[in-house]
UniProtKB/TrEMBL annotation:
UniProt cross-references to InterPro entries, sorted A to Z: Quinoprotein_ADH-like_sf, WD40/YVTN_repeat-like_dom_sf, WD40_PAC1, WD40_repeat_CS, WD40_rpt
Presence of the UniProt keyword Heme in the record: no
Basic residues biased stretches: 241-256
WD repeats: 79-121, 306-348, 479-521, 522-564, 565-599
Entry keywords, A to Z: Repeat, WD repeat
Organism: Gopherus evgoodei (Goodes thornscrub tortoise)
The protein, known as: WD repeat domain 17
Keyword Repeat: yes
Residue segments, region Disordered: 235-272
Gene3D superfamilies associated with the record: YVTN repeat-like/Quinoprotein amine dehydrogenase
Length: 1221
């Protein structure tokens, strides 16, 4: 295993311990990523191979891969090595893991997708490579050509490596736009020119023959009108990504890829149905940045991402009255408004405005956005009406770098420009003030406390404050100190008179207006600072984004940098958050992505104070108290004060409401509102109180069918208003189809048939008619006798429903990844909407009740499958919603990877039914609090659980204070003092009670005495042939809470090593029991290494460990791999024996909800610039990273969580506890 060589030195160093080193993870968590659209500048910008496809934004390549289990494409990686516009991409025909890309800075890169790294680079090519393609006949050779030619061939490896010029392909008459090699004829190549001609070179024939063909038919075989915006690029795959019932780990081999040039949709003709298309997929890229994978056989999108920005995003802002809507302004000339829950575009501005540098929402619910452009002045866009209502041209053709709508006085808008003016005007264009600066003005911000005060940032390195109530055009204050131009300025929303400024000198300065002084300089960025954002609840929290690709979080009290985020792949321009969701931040960048972040880890103690029901003083404070050096975080903003006011008004027990309101304010988007709505339904809240958008999320099972029924009604009757349809509103025909679909899934077969007839789709109507009555079917039969059955088509649905074969239908939906459809059908069945056809007349009575039992089981199964889909996608909250919707309360909480606080809040409100789950979440949360500062909080949390004595013992045993402090904690936890514990331990030892002996020794003045006693007992247990995991785990778990500084003493080294080995082995077995497959091999390997390198005597042999691991692999590989893979070998008889012994030893997991791997929110989001290799797997870590105590070794946060749940000690073998919670 890769990692062992990497960290083997730890295993040799017995007494390594650095008191202050603590494992750590990032405080700012990525929770959402809005990928860039496909660029419109170049031709060869999409490619595909096997089960992957890729497309190029301007600066990054997005790689999607088919998830075989759910049959859907997921973003797997973002490649952002290129610093200038990417010009072409080509997938290697011989190796599905490799593609080549070229960019405008004369660079060609060969990229390995599996390892996510560049394997070769060719710098400074002659001319910009405009098109490139792998040579089909040669192994490792890529050909590329600039607009004028000639054709170069770069051999990457081997004896002939280097660049050669094609002997014949040069001196073209017209520029080349792209070229292709012939896939069969070796060395034959065709060039397409900008004047519409083709040049073909064939070895051993005359040079440069121009041939123009046409196909034998003049009309297209078939045509698909896919999207209203024009095509930009098209890439056809000969064979589709294979569907597998079981997940497959290797992409299907030998897929050849051919390609056509830019496609323009042909005029619409009636499709020629007689011709059956070969199975194939096409990767399509559209002019608006949209990307899709179209299945030509089934005529449906396998993947479609509507529009996206294709260039740098300069600014992003949340809508003042709706924290779910985010507007973005881009270099591509558009403003787009996104729903951040679904990450889809809701509105896009009409036309191209040139480069848009800045945007500002109108205050309140005015639904307008002001935008500032590089050459075309400013404008106001009325968002729902979709048109520009005003334009501002006072700055002429000069760029406007910032536009700010006053939120205290909605009539005023400020702009600042390269012409040196900051202009204040009314929205109808009347100029109120023109403030002249000595050079370009880049930023301005209205004061949040005084409607007449505005600050500006200028190229002359100064910050100015103007007062609008006077007629003077001179600034009230000028702040000097920056050593390069000042860009943005921001007033603090919580501290009057405090403002910050970011500059090209790489620093952020904090100014106090009342003292006329700079009170702090924040240094750390290594390039100009652009984005700036104050937190609206924590007065000292400031966040900055820079051209150095990072986002930094600052504590402005002492200027420390609390965290640095490296996920963006280029300059970070805009940062924003919404006051009603103050710990969710959005950022935008030159990498053309928008990312969403959760800042809640920064205020952990505060969240736990809310959960532990501490007094308001420990949750909410005033600004003066909060900004004292070293004061714990307190909420000082409007949203927290509003919550307090509402809670104080409530009569009775307000705790449930308080937890809900705080949870909604602190949680990132992604289902927490949905979750609380479901909790309210389960607690019996009246349906009329449900919010309007409840029906858009995951609904409780009792609402699902009812809401969909009314949706079907609405689709059948409503005449869509002109705007209501939004982007590409459906036609009447489409609406009727949609209505028919819903009626069908609700079991209303006759309505479905009639609608189908209305649409002229007789066959569908006919095949379902027997579900109504044989008479009705005969009537229809006469009207239309013809029948048609197509395979692998949605037409299978009506048959299944008419015949009541729901099991088959649910399987069909599930195999296609249409889990929500499967859920709807199963629920409709449970409500008795599906009738099973009784053909014989004599058998009048059917037995519906017998089926309901089966349907219920079906419903729970589908719901669980849907939950797993959300969960492995890193969306644990929505997974929990799926379980809650079918009232599967026991399971829900274990779903929360890392979201223990939300789990505890919801569990507390649900009460008794979720007690076991809440207790587990509380215990993990208490482990999180076992850091230096929050011990009494951990005790408070544990006191909220029933039967908490043992948990409190572990807490006190691990507490590292002085004797007096330890006794205080013992007293708080109702445990005897340390002296008394010593006597109790001796008494228990005399009575032969091992567990009590260990317990009291751990609480005494000499906790190390517990080690030899406990370890001796565990070794005796393991020596018996019939020992089980449950007989040793409680003892190991208790021993692991010995204080770290005692465990690492030199005199304890032998027992410490034995404890580490036994914990590692028990951890491996627990990981098998809980199906944490990704860490089982690492735990076995870790235990073997310790056995090999340390002086110990334990009843374990290295050979035994490797036998068990091999047996586990052999016997469980069936579950993880598809059977038709060549590598599959069935387990041998001896392996089966070893594995069955293991299984009998491990027993079943009592807490069902813990089973299965952990997926932290954001764990499937690729990061851009910070690449870390896991020391457990040797692979690149995707998602959040956890650093071990040496500060260098890293593992994924998912693996760290699973490891710590089964083995408390660090993988480095140091004896330090792992605490990733």
């Amino acid at each position: 295993m890769a990692w062992m060589t990497y960290i083997s030195h730890w295993f040799d160093e017995d007494d390594w311990y650095e008191g202050h080193q603590r494992a750590k993870m990032s405080q700012v968590k990525q929770v959402g990523l809005l990928a860039a659209g496909c660029q419109p500048w170049n031709k060869d910008v999409c490619a595909a191979s096997g089960d992957r496809f890729a497309y190029c934004a301007t600066l990054a390549i997005y790689i999607y891969q088919l998830d075989h289990r759910y049959n859907e494409f997921k973003l797997r990686a973002i490649m952002s090595e290129h610093k200038k516009t990417i010009t072409a991409i080509s997938w290697c025909p011989h190796n599905p893991d490799m593609f080549a890309s070229a960019s405008a800075d004369n660079l060609v890169i060969i990229w390995n997708v599996a390892e996510q790294k560049a394997v070769a680079k060719l710098d400074s090519t002659k001319g910009v490579p405009a098109s490139l393609s792998w040579c089909w006949n040669a192994g490792d050779a890529v050909a590329f050509v600039s607009h004028r030619g000639p054709l170069y061939i770069w051999t990457i490896s081997g004896p002939d490596s280097g660049v050669a010029v094609h002997k014949e392909a040069h001196s073209f008459l017209s520029d080349i736009c792209l070229f292709r090699w012939h896939p069969k004829k070796k060395g034959k190549v065709v060039f397409g020119h900008t004047d519409g001609s083709l040049s073909i070179f064939q070895p051993d024939s005359q040079v440069g023959v121009l041939r123009i063909w046409n196909v034998s038919r003049t009309t297209p075989i078939d045509n698909f009108k896919l999207k209203k915006t024009g095509f930009h690029g098209l890439h056809v795959l000969n064979s589709p990504p294979k569907k597998k019932s079981l997940s497959s780990h290797s992409p299907t081999k030998n897929h050849h890829t051919s390609s056509t040039s830019e496609a323009v949709p042909p005029p619409t003709l009636t499709p020629n149905q007689a011709f059956s298309l070969p199975p194939g997929h096409a990767v399509c890229c559209f002019m608006d940045g949209g990307v899709g994978l179209y299945d030509m056989g089934a005529k449906k999108w396998d993947f479609l991402r509507d529009l996206g920005h294709v260039e740098t995003i300069f600014d992003c802002k949340f809508k003042p009255d709706n924290p779910d809507l985010l507007a973005t302004a881009s270099f591509d000339g558009t403003i787009k408004v996104w729903d951040i829950n679904t990450l889809t575009a809701v509105y896009t501005s009409p036309g191209n405005e040139g480069v848009i540098y800045s945007l500002s929402w109108a205050p309140g619910d005015l639904n307008c956005i002001a935008g500032a452009t590089s050459r075309n002045g400013g404008f106001i866009w009325d968002v729902p009406r979709g048109k520009m209502v005003t334009r501002f041209s006072e700055h002429g053709k000069n760029g406007i770098f910032c536009i700010a709508w006053s939120h205290k006085d909605s009539k005023r808008i400020a702009t600042c420009s390269g012409d040196g003016f900051c202009i204040i005007r009314t929205i109808d264009g009347k100029v109120l003030h023109k403030y002249k600066h000595p050079a370009a003005v880049f930023g301005c911000d209205w004061s949040q406390n005084n409607k007449d005060m505005i600050a500006t940032g200028c190229e002359d390195k100064n910050v100015r404050v103007y007062y609008l109530a006077t007629s003077s055009d001179q600034p009230l204050k000028v702040f000097t100190g920056h050593t390069a131009k000042v860009f943005h300025v921001r007033w603090s929303p919580l501290r009057e008179g405090i403002l910050c400024s970011g500059s090209d000198d790489g620093t952020v300065r904090i100014w106090d207006y009342t003292q006329d002084a700079c009170i702090n300089v924040l240094s750390g960025h290594t390039a100009p600072v652009r984005g700036l954002m104050w937190n609206t609840e924590i007065p000292y929290l400031l966040i900055s984004g820079s051209w150095d690709y990072t986002i930094r979080v600052w504590d402005t009290r002492d200027g420390t940098c609390l965290d640095t985020v490296y996920d963006h792949g280029a300059d970070v321009y805009g940062l924003t958050c919404h006051p009603s969701r103050p710990f969710t931040m959005a950022s935008c960048s030159r990498d053309s992505t928008v990312r969403l972040w959760s800042l809640t880890p920064l205020i952990n103690p505060l969240q736990i104070n809310i959960l532990a029901d501490r007094s308001w003083d420990e949750i909410i404070g005033n600004t003066d108290r909060a900004v004292e050096p070293g004061a714990p975080p307190l909420l000082c903003g409007k949203v927290s004060r509003d919550i307090k006011q509402e809670v104080d008004k409530l009569i009775g027990n307000p705790r449930g409401k308080k937890l809900r309101w705080f949870s909604e304010c602190l949680s990132p988007p992604g289902g927490s509102k949905n979750l609380w709505d479901l909790v309210a339904v389960i607690k019996g809240q009246d349906d009329s109180l449900l919010p309007q958008n409840y029906c858009k999320g995951i609904m409780h099972m009792k609402h699902l069918v009812r809401f969909r029924m009314s949706k079907a009604q609405e689709l059948t009757t409503v005449k869509m208003s002109k705007f209501g349809g939004g982007i590409g509103a459906p036609s009447k025909e489409e609406r009727l189809k949609e209505a028919a679909k819903i009626h069908l899934r609700l079991g209303q077969i006759q309505r479905y048939c009639e609608l189908m007839v209305e649409l002229g789709e007789w066959d569908k109507a006919l095949s379902v008619a027997p579900g109504v009555s044989m008479r009705y079917w005969k009537k229809l039969m006469q009207r239309r006798a013809d029948q048609l059955i197509q395979e692998e088509n949605d037409d299978v649905i009506p048959y299944c429903i008419a015949t009541g074969d729901l099991e088959k239908l649910v399987t069909f939906f599930t195999s296609r990844g249409q889990l929500k459809e499967a859920l709807l059908v199963a629920q409709a069945a449970c409500e008795g909407n599906m009738q099973i056809l009784q053909l014989s007349a004599s058998n009048g009575s059917s037995n519906p009740d017998g089926n309901l039992e089966d349907y219920n089981e079906l419903l729970h199964r589908v719901s669980k499958e849907l939950a797993e889909w959300y969960f492995q996608d890193g969306r644990a909250v929505l997974a929990a919603c799926c379980h809650l919707a079918v009232e599967n309360i026991e399971v829900i909480f274990f779903l929360y990877s890392m979201n223990w606080r939300l789990a505890v809040s919801v569990g507390t409100v649900l009460g008794e039914s979720a007690a076991q789950a809440t207790q587990y979440a509380l215990e993990l949360l208490a482990r999180k609090c076992m850091t230096v500062t929050t011990w009494d909080l951990a005790a408070d949390l544990l006191m909220m659980t029933p039967n908490n004595e043992l948990q409190l013992v572990k807490l006190c045993a691990f507490y590292p204070g002085s004797t007096a402090e330890i006794n205080d904690l013992h007293e708080k936890c109702n445990l005897p003092g340390v002296e008394e514990c010593m006597q109790l331990a001796e008494t228990a030892q005399a009575n032969g009670d091992v567990f009590e002996t260990i317990k009291y020794y751990l609480l005494s003045t000499e906790p190390e005495k517990a080690l030899p006693i406990g370890i001796q007992y565990i070794k005796e247990q393991i020596s018996n042939s019939d020992w089980t995991l449950d007989s040793v785990c409680p003892f190991l778990d208790l021993l692991s809470y010995i204080r770290t500084e005692r465990l690492v003493l030199h005199k304890c080294s032998e027992v410490r090593n034995e404890l580490l080995i036994l914990s590692g082995y028990a951890g491996a077995l627990l990981a098998i029991r809980r199906q944490y497959a990704s860490i089982v091999p690492a735990l076995y390997e870790y235990t073997s290494q310790l056995l090999k390198r340390r002086e110990v005597s334990v009843p374990l042999k290295i050979e035994q460990l490797s036998e068990e691991l091999d047996a586990w692999r052999a016997c469980t590989q069936l579950a993880n791999k598809s059977t038709d893979e060549l590598s599959y070998t069935p387990p041998s008889e001896s392996q089966r024996m070893v594995y069955s012994t293991l299984v009998s030893r491990i027993k079943e997991e009592p807490l069902k909800g813990i089973i299965g791997p952990d997926y932290v929110t954001g764990s499937n989001l690729p990061s851009h610039s910070d690449v870390h290799i896991s020391c457990l797997t040797g692979l690149r870590i995707q998602g959040p990273v956890f650093f071990l105590e040496d500060g260098k070794s890293a593992i994924s946060l998912n693996d760290a969580l699973m490891w710590a749940k089964v083995n408390p000690f660090s993988p480095l073998g140091t004896g330090i506890r792992l605490n990733p919670f």
